[in-house]
Amino acid sequence: MSVFGANAQITVTVTDGGSVTIPCGDPNVLLDGFNGAYTNNTTETITICATAGEGLTVNISMASEVGGYFDIDPSDTLYVYDGLDNNSPLIATLNNTSAPFGAATANTTLSNLTGCMTLVFVTDGSGTGQGFQGEVTCNYSCQPIIPWFSTVPAIEPNDSTGAIKVCLGETVTLNATAQFPMSAANGGPGYNQTLSNSVITWDIFGEATQTGTSVTFTPTQHAGYFVDMLITDTLGCFEYARTRILVSTIPSFASTMVLEGDTICLGEVATLIGGVTTADTVGVDPTEGQFLNGGLFGDALELPDGSGTIDDIYSTTITITGFEAGDTLVQGSDLMTMCISMEHSYLGDLEMWLECPNGYSIVIFNAYNANSGAPGFIPGGFTGSLGTNFGIPGAGSNQGTCWQYCYSVSQNTFGTLGSEFNTNTTNGAVTAGTYLPEQSFDDLVGCPLNGDWTLHVADSWPADDGWICEWGITFDPSIDPNAETYIPLIEDTWWSPNPTFISNQGDTLILSQPSNAGDFFFQFNVLDDFGCTYDTTITLNVVPNLTSFANTSVCALTYDLEAAVYPITGQWSASGPGTITFSPNDTTQSPSVSVSEPGPYSFIYESEYCGQKDTMEVYFRLTPQDVVFNDTIICPGDTLSFDALNVDVGPDYLWTPGGSTGQTFTLENIQQNTTVTVAISNECGDAEGTADITVNLIDIASSIEVCLGTEASLNASNVITGGTWSYDGPGDVTFDPDANADNTNASASVEGNYTFTFTDNYCNRTFDRDVAFAPIPTVDISVDTNRICLEDQLLFIATTNTNFLDEFYWSPNGVDGDSLLVSGSDNSTFISIDPNDSTQARISVTVSNFCGTETENYDFEVIDCTLIIPNVFNPNAGNEDNRTFHIAGLDLHPGNHVIIYDRWGFFTYEADNYHLAEWKGENASDGVYYYIITRSGYEAQTGYVHLVGGAQ
């Protein structure tokens, strides 16, 4: 932590001699001036002064952490004087003996008002070293702090022996006060330090840690609390002050009593004595208050940066006295807690262990996970987390803010530090609290209680440092003779007013005479010197007169007796025809009595007080008892019988339904749900029995039609104990979710009629449901040709994908069936689809079922197929159409056949599909030729034709 502004750094060379003033701020370079090994038999002197300013000190350091080195032979010495020359006080003699391992530092004191330091480097001729190099800075030195408290309530007396006395739940206000006699603010030589620029930390042991100039605290236990206040100034310098909070303890009212005892007879007088334990009561142990800790606290200990050597083990010791000689730790829990208030910038450096007076030791925690090999270092351990601190570290060697870390085997909140540090953090630091030590306090059993208890801390890695602000051991107060105690004193006592008081014999003795029986309560009060009031209540029982023991009868084999309307003690006795049992016993004022059989019984009560005794007669009669019938599930037509019992009490019976009056009742051929009830009655009361009868009436929905690809819903209602579905049909069936569900779905693989059967588990009855599965219908038309002659017929055939059809008809004539014969001359069987062309015709066929409807159209031509046969043709005609024997219209009759003969009947020409190969009269002579024309669906047609202009 720096309190200066930045200035230009300079280099201070010892061999230059003279005097040099260094700027304050960033460190300046310090050189021995030899630029290598120094020479023998030389004396070099230089005076280094801080920049003008009161309360400044000069500090030198040759540690490796600041980039320096230090090597001065033991025969040579660097002398450091606290002032302007070597006549000033000597504050350090430095060489490899006095400052081994390069740990060479020195700084002027606050009483040195010159702000200067003189260095004298003296060498002889016996040996040399490499010399020294480091840094020189100016800074403030710690100044005195005198802390104290201003509190509400006030500390009495207002010194280190005093305490704040409060009642439980009362809030204490703690205000910090302090004197800074060396502060510049008070005209002293020190830096400007006041309470307002200090950090005040409060530690109320066992309860709370707070910060601030003023804090409040409300105790939660009847105990003493140590209050520690830490004042830390701007340099991190600190001082403690301690006071105590004493919480009033609850006094003992053991001697508050009724002289005659806690019971008297009605009309007698009771003597009330108020008593309370006080510090000066002869022969009575006073009520002491104990402090929550009872611990002993060690001094603050700096934890400089270390690097894993024997010199990097830091120790602080508490010397404990006051136990009996030879007393040892009997059990680990007798050492209640070890608390350490500390800060450090890196947990991973540290190992800590506690050593008791006989050398036993336990590991508190071990964060460094390698064995340094140095004596006292602990092998193993866990790896501390980078950046995990203890508390809030200060800058450099300045003390930061210490947090309290406690270790206990009986009062811990957390586990070991090794199991908690990685997750249990607060703002980058291990959370303050109570942890388990890595080794149990039980390992210290046998340690002497008196003697030196030492806390060791090893720093195993360079570059980090910290402080232990305080530490302490808390022993169980029951074994600690040094545990502080306190005793509140009783200042006043009184009885609260009560209407039964008849005479006051003094503050603590009073007479009471209640006017009626029962419990009476009397409150005795005390006031202690803490201003706290307490009270206790004692009870007086006034024995009543016995209750009037009138004879009675009951319709039961039990009866509740009562000796009196107010509490009373005594004993019951009895006689009668059966066994008699008192519950809980025969000395109870109001027992419940039970007898084994009905009849008259005598009961006598005799009081222990006042000579009271009385007798009563109780006649026990039986009452009908409710009869339990089980609710029943039956199959239709079953028969059930019932028995109303209670035959021994002489009852009347009435059954519903039916009105039967017998003890038993039978219900036959049951077909529907019903409730059977019996009413039972006699002179002592009524009883009943009832049963709900459920008939397993199963209902299955009617037949349905379902399209293939969808599911049929199968529902069995009123099923009580389940059942199973099965099926019969042309294909496979799949159930969803399964065949064992009352309500399920079924899908079929092929069309057809299926029967689904539900078999009831309870009555093994079966129920059928028919389901027709069909596809959505399709239809196709097949025909030999797409045209028809007017004088001809054409057959259309329709095919569909299913046998499940509601309709199958042709349009436009509405003819049913899967085929249709159309005549070319009968246009009622088709429609014209083109008003401008009567040859364009259409028919339609439609099929439908419960899954849908489909219509298929077929278009065709209606034509005139009449043949036009010429009677003459000339192969040499100019008109090409007349050059062949051309029969017009024959092309409309595919498959036709023509044969031609000459006039003498000789074969001349023949052709299938003549229209494709007409006779041209080749090589034929002029003359008459006969023809025979055949075509499908027609009779053969004959005639003759003249050939002219043929072959010559």
Low-confidence stretches: 1-6, 278-286, 371-376
What is the number of domains? Answer: 8
Distance between the termini: 148 Å
Structural class determined from secondary elements: mainly beta
Report the β-strand fraction as a percent range.
35-45%
Total of helices? 1
Residue share in helix: under 10%
Reported for the largest beta sheet, the result is: 6 strands, mixed
The total count of strands amounts to 75
> How big is the Rg?
62 Å
Average pLDDT, rounded to a whole number, is: 85
Shape, principal axes of CA atoms: flat
What does this protein structure show overall?
With 952 residues, the protein is mainly beta. It has 8 domains: 11-140, Jelly Rolls (Sandwich); 146-247, Immunoglobulin-like (Sandwich); 296-483, no CATH class; 552-620, Immunoglobulins (Immunoglobulin-like); 632-694, Sandwich (Immunoglobulin-like); 699-774, Sandwich (Immunoglobulin-like); 779-863, Sandwich (Immunoglobulin-like); 872-947, Immunoglobulin-like, CATH 2.60.40. Helices cover 0% and strands 45% of the residues. The strands form 19 sheets. Strands 1, 3, 5, 6, 9 and 11 form a 6-stranded mixed β-sheet that branches. Strands 24, 25, 27, 30, 33 and 35 form a 6-stranded mixed β-sheet that branches. It is built from 1 helix and 75 strands.
